[in-house]
């Protein structure tokens, strides 16, 4: 079983979307790896909420839907580990979209 999260090699964040995702992942991974899964999920939730509300041109309708869907799913899930992973996958999807 995987019990630790590794940080991927991320390109240097350029815009606000990239900076927000990079910071959330950096802080969330530290919490997850320290065994504080709930804190990781909370960090990711706040970041995803901010991304949904951020008026950034690189976030198209499809990416906003990915984020909003992940947020809804994570909030409905009592398992904080799964909630964290749901939000992380959404941020990873957006990262791939905005970094090309």
Account of the protein in words:
With 100 residues, this protein is an all-alpha fold. The protein is built from four helices and no strands. It has helices spanning 16-33, 37-53, 61-76, 80-99. α2 runs antiparallel to α3 and α3 (61-76) packs antiparallel against α4. The radius of gyration is 13 Å and the shape is globular. The mean pLDDT is 90.
Rg, alpha carbons: 13 Å
Number of strands: 0
**Global mean pLDDT:** 90
Portion in strands? under 5%
Query: Largest sheet, if any?
Result: none
The number of helical elements comes to 4
Instruction: Give the low-confidence spans.
Output: none
* Structural class category: mainly alpha
**SSE string, helix = H, strand = E?**
HHHH
Distance between the termini: 31 Å
Helical amount: over 70%
Shape: globular
Give short descriptive properties of this protein.
mainly alpha, 100 residues, 0% strand, 71% helix, globular
Architecture blueprint of SSEs:
Elements: H1 16-33, H2 37-53, H3 61-76, H4 80-99
Helix pairs in contact: 1-2, 1-4, 2-3, 2-4, 3-4
Outline:
The protein contains 4 helices and no strands.
């Amino acid at each position: 079983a995987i019990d630790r999260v590794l940080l991927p090699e991320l390109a240097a964040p350029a815009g606000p979307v990239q900076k927000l995702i990079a910071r959330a992942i950096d802080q969330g991974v530290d919490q997850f790896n320290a065994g504080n899964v709930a804190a990781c999920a909370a960090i990711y939730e706040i970041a995803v909420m901010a991304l949904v509300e951020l008026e950034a041109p690189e976030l198209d309708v499809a990416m906003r839907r990915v984020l909003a869907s992940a947020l809804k799913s994570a909030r409905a899930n009592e398992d904080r580990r799964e909630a964290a992973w749901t939000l992380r996958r959404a941020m990873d999807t957006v990262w791939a979209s905005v970094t090309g």
